[in-house]
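Dear Dr. H.,

I hope your travels went smoothly. While you were away I took the liberty of generating a structure for the chain from your last submission, since the lab meeting agenda had it listed for discussion. I wanted you to have the full record in hand beforehand rather than looking at slides cold. The sequence, exactly as received, is reproduced here:
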Amino acid sequence: MTFRRGCALLMAGALLIVLSGCRGYDSRDGEGFTSGHTDPSGEVTISKMGGGIDVANAPHGATLNTMGGGIHLGNVASFARVKTMGGGVEIDHASGSVDATTMGGEITIGTSDGPVKATSMGGGITVHEVGSSSQQRDIQLTSKGGDIKLTVPKDFPMDVKITLAYTRTDRQYRITQHAGLDVRESENWDNSFGTRRKYIRARGIVGSGLNHVTIETINGNVILNQE
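The corresponding predicted structure, in token form, is as follows:
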């Protein structure tokens, strides 16, 4: 064995030892260089140059980044900051704030009882808010091309602003809601963005309007459920 090959094997072994300290980390689908550790505070931090990330539990928060691959986070408390340059994001349950971004994929948050900011450059977004309606938790969901579905508790007080832009005329788009929002559709085409588009907008305040809910999508439907 050459000296160079021996050093490479030692470095690879050391990397696996470091990663094994990340509770819930699964490296089986990973590719490329990976940096991962658990802070003294308990926060799980993983950054990868390519490949997926799978973390089962992060009771003290998680910061997850990959340059290409899906991200799955099971149960997370405190906070979750996740970003991928090419893949879907799935969070089973979050009991803290969520900031999720993907450049090409869907975002699904099974249940959340905290504020959510989710941005997809090319996929749908599904978020289910649960728990008490007394605490403030703003929600901002943005997709550049996909359906957005938000479910909130029945007595969830909110100030809602929904903007659905569409450039296609070969299908109908709609905002589905039973919250008594004022829904209006523009009559004229807007050419200020290069590609002409029309808008369907929904506005309204439910209850005290404590929580700000902002939803924006292009060529996708919006569904706002209360249950």
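Two observations you may find useful: Residues 1-32 have pLDDT under 50 and may be disordered. The chain has two domains: 1-105, 142-227.

With kind regards,
E. W.
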